[in-house]
Specification:
Elements (H helix, E strand, L loop, with lengths): L8 H12 L2 H7 L10 E5 L5 H7 L6 E5 L3 H8 L8 E5 L12 E7 L7 H12 L2 E12 L5 H18 L9 H7 L2 E9 L4 E8 L3
Parallel strand pairs: 1-2, 1-4, 2-3, 4-5
Antiparallel strand pairs: 5-7, 6-7
Bound molecules: S-adenosylmethionine.
């Protein structure tokens, strides 16, 4: 059974704020200057949509496709309408809804790859890769494994929380950079947040 974030949507942002302060938002916003002026942007698993307000703040005429399966998350994201500069196509569905769409200049996966199991991850990364334009960028923000005991414990606690509340099947963090590297991407920019346990990367395809 796929995960369902409906039951946590109402508390998601406050909980993230209580644990990580502003780090979650700062990390997701740090590389928004990599977005081209009139870019086509795909956001997968956007949650409550905080990132849409950040995109609007760029004052660029971006065309954004926002894909999120949870109705409660989506309804929160829609409440952020209207936007001044960006145009948003809200699609309540899983990432699979993007298959067959034209490629995007920017694909954003923030705290999204961590919902998948090891069995699913390779395929999902491959599928997302096919949605990024040849010269496009993949913006990825997520937790990283550090080996520091209290951070390991916190990650385990978060997985347990989302297993109980959202039926999350993914149960541990993977090295997402290695998966993207398999698809020919390399990080051209990286920045760490919250004692090194959150990292925000800009990935580009390497020349083949
Ligand atoms: C951990 S939350 C992150 C939300 C948001 N990106 C953020 O950073 O605040 C993961 C989100 O991915 C969504 N999700 C789960 N499986 C998905 C899928 N297959 N395709 C698209 N979104 C998915 C969930 O509903 C949830 O909103």
């Amino acid at each position: 059974m796929a995960s369902n974030f409906n039951s946590v949507a109402f508390i998601y942002d406050s909980l993230a704020g209580m644990v990580f302060g502003k780090s979650i938002q700062k990390a997701q916003s740090v590389w928004l200057d990599s977005i081209p002026d009139d870019g086509k942007v795909l956001i997968l698993g956007g949650g409550t949509g905080f990132i849409l307000e950040e995109l609007d703040r760029l004052e660029l005429p971006l065309k954004v496709t926002y894909i999120e399966p949870s109705s409660a998350m989506m309804s929160r994201a829609r409440k952020r309408l209207p936007f001044k500069f960006i145009e948003v196509d809200f699609i309540q569905d899983t990432h699979r809804a993007a298959f067959g769409m034209d490629r995007f200049d920017v694909v954003m996966t923030n705290f999204f790859l961590d919902v998948f199991t090891q069995d699913e991850l390779g395929k999902v990364v491959q599928q997302i890769s096919s949605l990024v334009d040849k010269d496009g960028v993949w913006l990825l923000t997520d937790f990283v494994k550090t080996g520091i005991w209290w951070q390991n414990a916190l990650i385990k606690l978060m997985y347990l929380f989302f297993k109980v509340t959202a039926g999350l099947e993914g149960n541990r963090l993977f090295n997402f950079e290695a998966y993207l590297s398999e698809e020919g991407y390399r990080a051209v920019k990286q920045k760490y947040f919250y004692f090194g346990m959150i990292r925000s990367d800009v990935y580009k395809r390497t020349e083949s």
